[in-house]
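# nightly structure sweep
# worker-07 picked up a monomer target from the shared queue
# config: single-sequence mode, recycle default, output format = structure tokens
# input follows
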Amino acid sequence: MESKFSGSVGSIFLFCIWAPILAIISLGFATPFITCTVIRWVCKNSTIGGKSYVFKGTAMGLFGRWILWTILSIITLGIYGFWSTRNQIKWVVENIEMVN
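# output follows
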């Protein structure tokens, strides 16, 4: 099964520039938007076994979960961060659909 990625280095460079700046300016509150934008771009530029994928998740759909996970991570002094990461990956995967 052949996998292909067609994203450009220029796009990756731009993500590496604007994503941290936006996260800092927004005090982290733009993290769900950044996450969804990057995952959507990766799906748009990837094929697996000749099949394309699309990311259907939205920043608003992630925002409430992200707030909860962040609060729980702060309360548990970072311990919940492991579950938070797992939950975010699970949410992303559940929001990816095959196009063809």
